[in-house]
DNA sequence: CTAGGGTTAG
């Protein structure tokens, strides 16, 4: 019987469901199936083989359900994504009078984390403290993670800082918590602290760090983490590989992303989706579709996320017919329903292509209540195509749905300005003032030799300000000779044309690029980042500049990457 | 029987 018990454990470890089931049959024949150890072994084996029904059945048929068995079935639910069921077992255990231990708490906290139920998280914390299990490292680490996932950063930090047994898992949870709450810098700092304490990294923490770098678009630091991955031999870890693809794509280096992609040992759906999404984000729409077809050829089934990236690729490549094909027959081709996100992509795509009526039609007929993203897409399209009517309708909805966002006011004002409705522009400004909505100031930054230089519009604080403005003046002359005309309609100020040109000239992204030109060697690519969308005029100007000075300009704005080269942009002006 | 990691438009 001991042999059988170990054999079950082995099956659970590698998910051998057929062999596990055979062992179960033998146990019944031998009539030793009533042993509690065997029951727990069976529950665990079925759970890890993804056979939740069988696991549940074994548990239900158990005559004397002890604490270990309850823990095993709770863990089974949690491992199979049935977190609510796992959570609901906790009060049932209390009723059954079996008590709980550190394993119960740790398991229940895992489900608390994935369900993000803040209130329950605090309760389990209190219970852990009261029962003395708070000193168990599994419980502590689970608490840190659960608080992190519930976005209760302060509580997570407090436990992390106060406990004496913080280890690699605890650090990973905390690093992930910072990264996922947008505090990538903190995450990277914590990693250094971890190394200082002599804790060696593993693939989990590397994966999390790469994600932090991706969110920060921190190319240099991402490369550093990549070095750690190589140094410690984690390059054959699928998760680390996927994170590398994502990191390089989000940091603007699609070549590195492709290299990382081809060295993943088992390219799964996440690897393919990350690659397709990365290519789409960089404007390589056709290439993204090529990779998608390659994936299908390999027999990998796409999921809903893959299709969001595919539609996005069509969007950035202007492939309306292609997108409609995938969108209309998603169910028949791939077997899943269209989600809100797919509709949003499609509406965005139709809108950009100038087919605003069709986009509007889709909004009215889709099986979801249009949310902020849908109205946002329409508003953006209305701005490109100067459609006041649809712009007003979309803005009206957005002001109700997302009143705190400043973008809506600005975009609508943009539309009014573009058609010369200055009275309405003024009204929008007043509305912004009355509602106390502040336009987020545009900030651009550039990294030169390990230092980050930030610029705001009209900035004169930089030590090399004189040179920067001189460079802009020089460029201005060469630009007009090359046929560039400032796109003044994208300026909101009701002032004369030459005054507008001057304002446009001092946009933060132009200052950053000018600085890049004087501070980096000739021919080197210039990598600039902006916290908002790049302005249409700057976009046009950069196309010209890339040709005039024979430099590649790589600009990451809030949505995507623009690669300006030889007078054109990778987004094909389709952003 | 228990803890940490990867892909989603605007």
Automatic annotation (TrEMBL):
PPR repeats lie at residues 66-100, 167-201, 268-302. Transmembrane segments: none annotated. GO terms for biological process: RNA modification. GO terms for molecular function: RNA binding; zinc ion binding. Keywords: Repeat. The keyword Repeat applies. Residues 483-575 form the DYW domain. It holds the Pfam family DYW_deaminase. Belongs to the PPR family. PCMP-H subfamily. PANTHER family: DYW DOMAIN-CONTAINING PROTEIN, PENTATRICOPEPTIDE REPEAT-CONTAINING PROTEIN. This is DYW domain-containing protein.
